[in-house]
Design a protein that fits this description.
Its cofactor is Mg(2+). The protein has 19 helices and eleven strands. By secondary structure, the chain is an alpha+beta fold. The protein binds adenosine-5'-triphosphate and magnesium ion.
């Protein structure tokens, strides 16, 4: 057993000693069996949340209505969720209410895919009610039970299917894929934020290009913001040179493939409920990508874009298969006499002391000096700049 599970074992044992059943469940069991890195260990138990809290010194009510308590144990935190079923999915999204149940089987039945419905007990034995182990071996994403019914209960599962395909490099089982193709419209019921989170995980997964192809083929792409009717442009994504590994690259690439104008980027990013910071960086990348596509950037353009955005734009160009001499661009950037405004030897106050009146002309003069310094036509010293001013 990996250390993360060994460290968590006393938590299971404490629950058992309290007279309850307890298992590792969900993604962590799947990832251990795949030899993947585990980021969080989920535990399912027959104990009610209040009973869980009594057994541990430190706990947080993270989702007590849904039966989840976070327990802090030896510096780690564990989500402990009472066995439950979900009922009354009136609106194709989250269940109206959860019902706590006394056995693990019912709890595993509500889970989305067979590979996510595995449990492990304190002896390290796997409980596999839906041939999840065989599907792990065959690298298949397959719904637990009838896929049509499961997607009607919760349409987000359709996005989760393509997300796990990408992250795990798995294929989609035929009936599960057919059910998505038949019911992709159900995704309309799901909030953009939740769709976006799955979309980004898909887009940044190891097999993003294959998963994106299924995302297009099943028409899921018709149900997400600003993608409807854009299949032809988006079909380039599965044919990219590489899969993106940064979120800013993912969004920039999509925007470039969709052929968006500068002034459409903000709306697109807002439609996807992206943050302002993400939007601003994506705008800078797409703009600089345009510059790089039209000409070799000038020193001043390199200065203006800055190192981070330069590297991000190079990443985007690389993924899109655009030839760029990235070493030369980075070397030129590193050789710039100044990298930001504060490195200029003078500022506005210096110009005022030299008799320039405050106002727009002062700003223009400052920019002119900055450009001359960046282009290497003027030394970045007070003396050289003073001399330059006299010649104006
Ligand atoms: P990740 O590595 O992204 O955390 P995960 O499998 O742990 O993957 P989570 O979203 O953390 O995914 O969910 C934990 C578990 O809860 C899943 O493995 C699955 O068993 C169950 N689950 C999560 N979301 C759903 C859903 N929408 N429908 C059914 N079961 C779900
Ligand atoms: Mg998880």
């Amino acid at each position: 057993l990996p250390n993360v599970f060994l460290a968590a074992m006393p938590v299971l044992k404490t629950l058992e000693a309290g007279g309850f059943e307890a298992y590792f469940v969900g993604g962590s069991v799947r990832d251990v069996l795949l030899g993947r890195h585990i980021h969080d260990v989920d535990i399912a138990t027959s104990a009610y949340p209040e009973e869980v809290k009594e057994l541990f010194e430190k706990s947080i009510d993270t989702g007590i209505k849904h039966g989840t308590v976070t327990v802090l144990y030896q510096g780690e935190s564990y989500e402990i969720t009472t066995f439950r079923t979900e009922s009354g999915y009136q609106d194709f999204r989250r269940p109206d209410h959860v019902t706590f149940v006394q056995n693990l089987d019912e709890d595993l039945k509500r889970r989305d895919f067979t590979i996510n419905a595995l449990a492990m007990n304190t002896d390290g034995e796997i409980i596999d009610l839906f041939v999840g182990l065989a599907d792990l071996k065959h690298k298949l994403i397959k719904a637990v039970g009838d896929p049509e019914q499961r997607f009607h209960e919760d349409a987000l599962r359709m996005m989760r299917a393509v997300r796990f395909m990408s992250q795990l490099k798995f294929s989609l089982e035929e009936k599960t894929e057919q059910a998505i193709a038949d019911h992709h419209q159900l995704l309309k019921k799901i909030s953009v934020e939740r769709i976006r989170d799955e979309f980004v995980k898909m887009g940044l997964g190891a097999d993003a290009r294959a998963a994106f192809q299924i995302f297009l083929d099943t028409q899921l792409s018709e149900e997400v913001p600003d993608f409807a009717g854009k299949k032809e442009q988006l079909a380039v994504f599965p044919k990219l040179q590489f899969s993106p590994t940064m979120e800013t690259s993912l969004w920039s690439i999509i925007i470039i493939l969709l052929g968006m104008q500068d002034n459409q980027i903000g709306k697109f990013m807002r439609d996807w409920k992206n943050s302002n910071a993400m939007t601003e960086e994506v705008e800078r990348i797409v703009n600089f990508f345009d510059i790089m596509s039209s000409h070799t950037p000038t020193d001043y353009e390199l200065f203006e874009v800055g190192k981070k955005t330069l590297l991000n734009t190079i990443d985007v160009a690389h993924i899109l298969g655009q030839p760029v001499d990235s070493n030369a661009l980075v070397d030129r950037y590193l050789a710039l006499p100044i990298k930001n405004n504060s490195e200029l030897a003078i500022d506005g106050r210096f110009l005022i002391k030299k008799g320039i009146k405050p106002g727009p002309q002062l700003g223009e003069l400052l920019t002119k000096i900055k450009k001359a310094v960046i282009n290497g036509d003027l030394d970045n010293t007070e003396e050289a700049i003073a001399e330059f001013l006299e010649k104006q």
